[in-house]
Design goal:
Layout: E1 2-6, H1 9-27, E2 35-39, H2 46-57, E3 66-70, E4 72-74, H3 85-92, E5 104-105, H4 114-127, E6 133-137, E7 158-161, H5 164-170, E8 184-187, H6 190-194, E9 199-203, H7 209-217, E10 235-240, H8 249-266, H9 279-299, H10 314-348
Parallel strand pairs: 1-10, 2-3, 2-6, 3-5, 6-9, 9-10
Antiparallel strand pairs: 4-8, 7-8
Helix pairs in contact: 1-2, 9-10
């Protein structure tokens, strides 16, 4: 699992939006091979969505061959309701980009058979070969999607009763009136999210700092469903400084040091978007090994006894020349040291 820390919400949104853009572009989706993207709602991804809209308007990102699956939807709320997740997604993202309407998948909280609606949703994901990247947020109690504390970590898309804390947290979207907040929702399961080939979570604000600490520093626990990301082979959390308030200082320093190594020592040009080592870095390492081998051979005078010169490439010749220069510099240094000790010994009238 990787943890990326940025200064504030704006920087987090910029990082995540750029990451999503690059993942889609590097995937090079087509009609036959679309990029399947899981998406959240709530306050966390709004900044990301607005920046994705900007990328699309600038011609840097196309949604033509992107298929989306949203995490959840309220039960009983009309799709055109101002607080439905259908309305949220179209207002903040979909109507501003070139995505095809039939490529958008949002659960129907008004379906006559809610269980069947959930099964169809899972089947559609499977039909497309799974989700490539699932972008998510969390609640203050560490729930991912509407997988409230105590949810099974092997859960699939289903009907879920909302926890009271979640109802209170979402009351701000309903004029502050708790009674107007739906009490049921359809949600993807924890396993649905974790089945994605990559999971990326956005966590910002001091009110989510305890959940982040539970996720990063403690074990996998169904009372903090976000902690399931620890088991994912390509899990990534992007957070702001406020969200790290409950983490140990050494934990934050550790993850920042990893990013420092990536950028300052290995070099961003040698790393893929997901932190994987690129081919050219391997080639560079191999060339360095060859130079070291040739240098060692030169220093040890490990030439053929008959003096025959072996065939060599220009790279080998350059490496030999470099090795010879290093050897000569070493010999000069040894001669200077020897002369120094001889003069010092004579002055002190002692043996070196």
């Amino acid at each position: 699992m990787r943890l990326i820390v940025r200064e504030n919400y704006e920087e987090v949104s910029s990082y995540v939006a750029y990451y999503v853009k690059e993942r889609i572009n590097q995937f090079a989706p087509t009609k036959e091979r679309p990029f399947v993207l899981g998406l959240p709602t709530g306050s966390s991804p709004i900044g990301v969505y607005h920046k994705l809209v900007d990328f699309n308007a600038a011609g840097q990102l196309s949604f033509e061959h992107v298929v989306t699956f949203n995490m959840d939807e309220y039960v009983g709320l009309p799709t055109d309701h101002p607080q439905s997740y259908h309305t949220f997604m179209w207002n903040h993202l979909f109507k501003h980009v070139n995505i095809k309407k039939n490529n958008v998948h949002i659960l129907d909280g008004n379906a006559s058979n809610l269980d069947e609606e959930c099964r169809k949703f899972e089947a559609e994901i499977a039909k497309l070969g799974g989700i490539e990247l699932f972008l998510g947020g969390i609640g203050p109690d560490g729930h991912i999607a509407f997988n409230e504390p105590g949810s099974s970590l092997t859960s699939r898309t289903r009907v879920k009763t909302l926890a009271y804390e979640t109802i209170i947290a979402n009351a701000r979207f309903f004029g502050g009136e708790v009674s107007r907040v739906p009490k049921l929702a359809l949600t993807v399961g924890v396993a649905t999210v974790m089945d994605a080939r990559e999971v990326m979570l956005v966590i910002t604000g001091a009110h989510k700092s305890l959940a982040l600490a539970k996720c990063v520093e403690e074990g996998v626990n169904h009372m903090w469903t976000v902690s399931a990301i620890q088991m994912h082979p390509k899990g990534l959390i992007v957070c702001d400084e406020d969200a790290t308030l409950e983490l140990h200082v050494k934990t934050v320093k550790y993850f920042k040091s990893i990013e420092h190594v990536h950028h300052s020592i290995i070099g961003p040009h040698n790393l893929g978007l997901q932190g994987n080592l690129l081919r050219n870095m391997v080639d560079t390492n191999q060339a360095a090994k060859r130079r070291r081998r040739l240098m060692l051979q030169n220093l040890l005078n490990n030439d053929d006894d008959d003096g025959r010169r072996r065939e060599s490439s220009p790279e080998d010749d350059a490496a030999v020349a470099a090795a010879a220069a290093v050897a000569e510099a070493g010999q000069k240094r040894k001669r200077r040291n020897s002369a120094y000790w001889q003069e010092t010994s004579a002055a002190l009238d002692v043996n070196p």
